[in-house]
Design brief:
By secondary structure, the chain is of the alpha/beta class. The protein folds into 2 domains: 230 residues, TIM Barrel (Alpha-Beta Barrel); 30 residues, no CATH class. The protein has 11 helices and 8 strands. The N and C termini lie far apart (54 Å). Bound molecules: 3-methyl-2-oxobutanoic acid.
Length: 274
């Protein structure tokens, strides 16, 4: 298998991720929603780019992911796919694009693959959505599942606090993980659950788990790009590590530009044409 400078295959596939789990090599996943940032993410060696419906929050400024539509997801996915040379691009299926009927779910998954160029789709839920996962997988479309804190159900949960702390919910989550694996999912995101439970789920599955707020024992990790780059103000959950403060850097640069315009120190002679 040919590799690039980051020791990744020329193209990451679902098979690559399966192999990484088997070999104990952690999977790095990040979100992206536009061409420019997706290019940086791909070139930095990220294995999977998730075009998350978190675009609803970080791109569109909504409180929740509920307002996201298929047209929004197709647009963001098209932008990311144009940038991704190596990473596997997974597109989120937005709220109500897969819950009504399996037929509608398959048509929408098909749009994300055919119209937007995604390599796989992700949807939220366990045993209740297993038949839908099976239908999509049977059509040749790889599906990533998502358990634990599933943001599309926020109005059912009521809060964004850690899920499955109680025995009963932990048992249900373990069963849901088995159900999505049996339905053919190639991977599962575990969001905001106790680290011990994530470890147990990871050990119990053949497919890779990707954690966010689920401890170090998942097969991989995912963060929302804008959060880890420090582009968001005021979002500081315990699980988030901010790798940069780009928001602050942007603010300083823009303030300096405004000052330069006001004082007529921009543009200079060198920045002007004769
Ligand atoms: O939409 C998203 O960004 C996600 C991740 C938080 C896993 O689903």
């Amino acid at each position: 298998m040919s590799t690039n400078t980051h020791d990744r295959p020329a193209k990451v596939t679902t098979k690559t991720l399966q192999l990484m789990k088997q070999e104990g090599r952690p999977i790095a996943m990040l979100t992206a929603y536009d061409f420019t940032l997706a290019k940086w993410v791909d070139q930095a060696g990220v294995d999977v780019i998730l075009v998350g419906d978190s675009a609803s929050n970080v791109m569109a400024g909504h409180e929740t992911t509920i307002p996201m539509t298929m047209d929004h997801m197709v647009y963001h996915t098209q932008c990311v796919v144009r940038a991704a040379e190596t990473a596997l691009v997974v597109a989120d299926m937005p709220f109500m694009s897969y819950q009504v009927t399996a037929r509608q779910a398959l048509q929408n998954a098909g749009r994300l693959m055919k119209e937007a160029g995604a390599h796989a789709v992700k949807l939220e839920g366990g045993a209740p959505v297993a038949p839908i996962i099976r239908r999509i997988v049977d059509a040749g479309i790889p599906v990533m599942a998502h358990l634990g804190l599933t943001p599309q159900s926020i109005f059912q949960f009521g809060t964004y606090t850690v899920r499955a702390k109680e025995e009963a919910e932990a048992e249900k989550l373990l069963a849901d993980a088995q159900a999505v694996q049996e339905a053919g999912a190639f991977s599962v995101v575990l969001e905001k659950i106790p680290a011990g439970l994530a470890k147990k789920v990871t050990a119990s599955l053949e497919i890779p788990t990707i954690g966010i707020g689920a401890g170090v024992d998942c097969d991989g990790q995912v963060l929302v790009l804008h959060d880890m780059l420090g582009l968001n103000k005021g979002f500081e959950p315990r699980f988030l590590r901010r790798y940069a403060e780009l928001g602050q850097t942007a603010n300083e640069a823009i303030s300096q530009y405004v000052a330069d315009v006001r004082t007529k120190t921009f543009p200079s002679k060198d920045e002007s044409y004769e």
